[in-house]
Structures are given as C-alpha cells and as structure tokens.
Fold this protein.
Amino acid sequence: MKTTVLEKSAVDNSSKDNQTLISAERYVAIDKWIAKYLPENRQAAVIPALHIVQEGNGGHLTVALMDELAQYLKMPEIAVYEVASFYSMFEHKPVGRHKISICTNISCLLRGSEELVDHLKKKFGISLGETTSDGKFTIKEVECLGACVGAPMCLIGRDYHEHLTPEKIDAILENLE
Amino acid sequence: MANEVCFSTIHLDEPWALSTYQSAGGYEVWKRVLKNKTSPDEIIGELKTSALRGRGGAGFPTGLKWSFMPRNTPGQKYIVCNSDEGEPGTCKDRDILRYNPHALIEGMAIAGYTIGASVGYNYMRGEFFEPYDRFEAALEEAYQAGLLGKNVLKSGVDFDLHSHIGAGAYICGEETALLESLEGKKGQPRFKPPFPASYGLFGRPTTINNTETLASVPYILANGGKWFLELGRPNNGGPKLFSVSGHINKPGNYEVPMGTSFANLLEMAGGVWKGRKLKAVIPGGSSTPVLPADIAMDMDMDYDSIAKAGSMLGAGSVIIMDESTCMVKALARLAYFYYEESCGQCTPCREGTGWLSRVVNRIENGKGKQEDLDLLVDVARKIGGRTICGLGDAAAMPVMSFIQHYRDEFQYHIDHKRCMV
C-alpha cells in the first residue's frame, strides 16, 4: 500500500502526457463538467473533477493531484483541499481495489448492519477504515446512503447492494477480482 | 394504482424511457405551456390550488415559493433540484430518479419557464451512481427530442438542464449548503436572509425544490390543481411517497394519498415483522420526533395530522421499531449521525452534537450518570434555535423526544448498566 503518486497514475492507462499527473482523457471528462457553468464559475466543477481524479488514481487523492487540479480550475490550492477534506467520498490515503462502504445508520441498524460489520471485520481480520494486506478490500462505515427500504445495504464501487446477509455479501465479494 | 403521481408509470416496462413517459402523456404539459405561452401566474395559481407542499421535509407551499422569484429582473436566474437525499430513513427520490426521471425533467423545465430561469441543475448525492446514470440518459433523450436546449420546439424559450453531483455530506440537503456545494465549496449553510430567491446560486435569484416536488408538477398541471388537492386533504394536497423501513415485513416506497391512516400504511407494508408488536415510529426521517405505538396508530399521514400527534411528516420517511428495539441504542446511533454530519460552522451544533453523542453513548454502554438525562435535555435545548441552519434542531429533536417518551429505558440503563429489552 505504499504506492507513490507516479506509480499509481499508471493505473490510468490513458495517461499520455508525462508532464501532468492527471491524464488527458480525464481532463476531457473534467472539461465536460466545466462546460455546464459560466466561464467565471469554473470552480463549480471541483467536486465532479475530484471524483474523476480520484478514480484515475486508484481511489484516493494526493496533494500533488489536488494542486494540479487547483491550477486547472483556477482555484487557490487551499480551496481544493477544503472541499476534498469536507466530503466523505474523498480519500486521502490509499484504499483497496474494492471499497465496501457499509451503512450502519438507523434503518440498517434495525435490519442487522452490526452483524454484517462484524462478519466483514472477522472475514478480513481488519477494523473499519482499514484495508486488507493484499490491497483488495477496504471496509468503511458510512452514514445513510438513501436506500433504507433495502436495509441493510452497502456501496461497492458504483453499485448498491441491498437486503444483505453475511452469506449474500460473501457471494458478492467472491465475484470481485 | 389510480392515486399515484410520481409512481404512476412504475409498473410499465422501462418506466424511465422517454417513449414510456410519453405514452402516458408525458411532456404534453411542457409542449402546451410553450405553445400557449401560459402565463406564469396561471401556473403558480394552479400550484397554489393544489396545496403541493415541499416534499424534501420542510413542507413549504411550492406555489408560494415560486411566486417569490423576481422573474422579470434581468440577468441569469436558476432552478435547482435537491436530489441530495440523505436523511436517515429517506430513499424515495432515488426511485424517482431511477424510474421516472422524465417527470423530474419536465417539472424542472416548467419551473424554469415559470420563474424565468433558462438554466437548471439537478444536484444528486455522489453515491447515487445508478440514479445519476438514469437521469443522464433521460436528459440525453430529452435533448435529442428537442424538449430541452435553445429555442425549445421553436418557442423562443431556452432551457438547459444539467446534472451535478455531490460527494457525501448530509448537510448539502440544506438548500443553501447545497448552493455552496454546487459552487464548488464546502457545504456550509448560508445566513438567511437573503433567501435564495434574491441571492442564490452564483449570487443570482434561484428556486430550489425537492425531486418529488418537481416531479409532481407536470401531473398537477395536466390534471388541474383541484384534482391534486382532492387526492389528499385540505392544505395537504396530493399523494406522497412514504419510505417505510426498519422492522417491517415489506419495506418499500409507498405512494399513498395524504391523510391515509398510519395503520393502513403499516398494513400495506405487511405489518411489523416476525409477528412482533409495534413499539415506536419515527414518522418523517431521523430528525423528526419519535412517537410511541399508541400515538402513531391513531395518526393520519399528512403534515397537519402528524404535527398534531407531536411529530412531523418531514420527507415521509417512516422508520418502524418493534418491541425488541433498545431506544437508548437507537438514539445513540442517531446522535452519532448528527455529530458526524455537523458542518462545524456554528459552535452550539459543532460542540453540542458531540456532547449529545458522547453522553448517549456512555448511557448505552452502562457508564451513564444520574445527571446525564437532564444534561442531555439541557444540551439539546441549547442547540435548538441557535444555529444558522436546521441541523442543530434536527439533532436536538430526537434526543428530546426519545427521552420524553422512553425516559424509563434510559433510567434503567443508568441504574442497571444494561438494557431492559
């Protein structure tokens, strides 16, 4: 888990320009967001852009990446750090290939999220907020994800998994590379 | 079902597709408005008749909100949709985005026309990948059909609509925090006044409505405000989506007329699970006061009836708790949530939510002191009404109501260092 920024950026196969940490392809994606706002409101794209940059870096942000983005969005660097540290989806240290964000809020608690969390902790031998030694899984406790009628639930990658049981989550994890 | 609005097409194949939406009369209102150049006052009048109230939780009359917009002042104005659904217990907007995205698009287009906004943003929470994909696909369909963009259907009216995404922060559901977030900042609520209608997104006049509110608009204008009103009750128009979660046999989103009895809704959702008895209900999402079973069973599901019962309809997020529930533990989880999600701007909330969480937690863990109950009530009172936004009150209300109705359980935890249930 001690990968540097430069090594990590190799995760992004589309990286063509060695002079930037953020790949050309990702800048194209960021530009699509910038186009939604008036030119003077370019900064409005920072949250979507941080998502794009984080995804390209294997799931976490670095100061170097945020600095480069700040320059591109014409924002003070500190303004990007503020945003990146305010929102819970942004990570500031490496995470596993699969981040399991598990909701433990009231509706999920009532339907057995504690059992699920215990199961995952035992299965991986790690605590909430930690990553397995092979770098495959991170388990993270999150607040309500707005799928309460499917409780208990979790988010893995881009997908919600609902009505979970320990057996069901085992089956889901088995299918992940 | 005949009484459904936002879910009226949910039983059809691919309800999210433009063709499905149009087969049920979708976009006819938008076309009619563009063709006849319907006066904004007429649209607002229809909404006022309908008694549509904000579905995000505050219940503010939508027609009145739209009437606040200075639509004839020059310069850019905005319509913003709040799809930052994150109040524990609430998960209805996700289903509107997934199953009826075109109703939201049409509602936003009509709203933009009415308030004089040529640009709209739909702010969806960052974790809503699937709903975002559905909404984006629907936007593309609408653009391709010429229903959005410049000079829509050669009417001379422009309306551009964009998605925007968050990144995990409950506070961004507060409308001015959402605007800050949309501008690319930390989601910290603004002082009001000025209200968004005069100083909103990028400092321009802005109207912000909830997803369900905006998605209801085309149906109201298609069938008339009176029709919508009569589906519900006076001052509580229409049906409402209720997310029923927790200890229930068939958890789900149910769109039922305002004024439906809680007992009926409970039955629709299959009753309390495992044959157990109902203990308590949080009727409108985690911020709304908890109600004991006997009070809930006598209550109807509309703004005024739930207020009379001592709680709030909120976002219609009904959390069911059976007799096995430890109320101390339930409150400990809610108190932690507000502590975790406080944006840190106002001292009473930033510090007070930490106190609430730590004190409830120590009672839950058998380390409570006798004076803790009064301490909790004191801290809660000192947060409520002393913060820029409603999160402070939202954190205080569960604490007050849990202790009010279940004081004996808290006392038992303090006396016996364990739970009575």
